[in-house]
Design goal:
CATH superfamily of the largest domain: Aldolase class I
Largest sheet: 6 strands, antiparallel
Number of domains: 2
CATH class of the largest domain: Alpha Beta
CATH architecture of the largest domain: Alpha-Beta Barrel
Radius of gyration: 25 Å
CATH topology of the largest domain: TIM Barrel
Structural class: alpha/beta
């Protein structure tokens, strides 16, 4: 693989006319093709001055508190580079402006990849932090990330894996779950019931055809009143029914605490105390807390996680050739952080 470390190599990059998608491929990321051009210009200048291999120490810090994620990808990005790396392990909490990673080595070995490694950390940490906020609201109740539909498919697995790092019980995106060493989670969408024409008939087909380890959680808001459908499905499936899912659209008021409370009451009154209530659709930490109080047991969360803002990460040179340095407004020299671990 040829590293894009000169303007000549930038000019050599050609985009195939039959390229299907705009997302960067793995080798394009690893080669430096997704970095900012000004780092290539920096290499040109330092090489001409004989300073490209100057030993430096760089530190990475965030603008706000959160959960660190993307560390494993940074290590993969720099795995063949002659650098040492200290950092917070994947999934650790961090404070605003705390040093979360320190890289030492010749500038030529990692300077080109500043844009890339900061992007890896910023996006994944933002998603993981949003997932942790959901986890704190849900307490011991499980929640699953359903956010793949809200982001570009190239990053959907990254996002949902980050959600699992942040505390999600699982993910619906197949590749995301596999990357996290899990089975993908989810039953079926409204489409299957709309095509079949009846919720109970669809539920019975699901129960008959799906493997035994697929949870029998059935959508009940497609055609009729949710409480009525919950009782119809429970009567048809009996002990096999693990849960009912409420995903009432905003056009009908969404899933309200009153709706959850009624469904729970009617299921209990009919003898179906074993049936759990799974809620999805526009959930936030605040909504989850009110729904738990009403009787909800588990959640599917999409846009709150997928739409989370990246956590801005900054990388500063703090030593050059062993001398403490810093740009104006920053403290020169290494900022101690005993929480950092040797990662490479």
């Amino acid at each position: 693989m040829q590293i894009v470390d000169s303007l000549a190599r930038v000019r050599q990059i050609q985009v195939a006319p039959d390229r299907l998608f705009f997302a960067a491929q793995h080798d394009e990321i690893a080669s430096g093709a997704t970095t900012d051009i000004y780092f290539v210009r920096t290499y040109e200048i330092l090489k001409d001055l004989g300073k490209l291999d100057t030993p430096v120490t760089a530190e990475v810090f965030p603008r706000r508190a959160g959960i660190i994620c993307g560390v494993d990808e940074v290590l993969a990005l720099l795995q063949d580079r002659k650098v040492t790396i200290e950092g917070l392990p994947e999934g650790s909490t961090f404070a605003a402006r705390e040093v979360v990673m320190r890289i030492h080595g010749p500038y030529s070995e990692f300077g080109l990849f500043e844009t890339t490694l900061l992007g890896l950390l910023a996006s994944s940490s933002g998603w993981a932090t949003a997932a942790r906020e959901i986890k704190e609201a849900a307490a011991e109740r499980p929640f699953f990330c359903f956010g793949a539909r809200h982001v570009h498919p190239a990053v959907a697995p990254v996002m949902e894996r980050a959600a699992i790092i942040g505390g999600a019980s699982g993910a619906s995106c197949i590749l995301a779950a596999r990357l996290a060493g899990q089975e993908p989670q989810g039953t079926v969408p409204h489409a299957v019931f709309l095509i079949i024409g009846d919720t109970v008939e669809g539920a019975l087909a699901y129960d008959r055809l799906m493997p035994a380890d697929a949870k029998r959680t059935i959508l009940i808001d497609t055609f009729k009143d949710e409480a009525e459908e919950a009782l119809r499905v429970a009567a048809a499936m009996g002990p096999a029914l693990a849960g009912v899912r409420l995903d009432t659209p905003s056009e009908r008021g969404g899933v309200t605490p009153e709706l959850v409370r009624e469904v729970r009451y009617r299921l209990d009154a009919a003898g179906y105390q074993h049936v759990r209530i799974f809620v999805s659709g526009g959930l936030t930490p605040e909504r989850i807390q009110t729904l738990i109080a009403a009787g909800a047991d588990a959640f599917g969360v999409g846009s709150y996680i997928s739409g989370a803002a990246p956590i801005d990460m900054t990388m500063d040179l703090k030593e050059v050739d062993g001398r403490p340095v810093a740009k104006r407004g920053r403290l020169p020299g290494i900022i101690p952080n005993p929480r950092l671990e040797k990662l490479k």
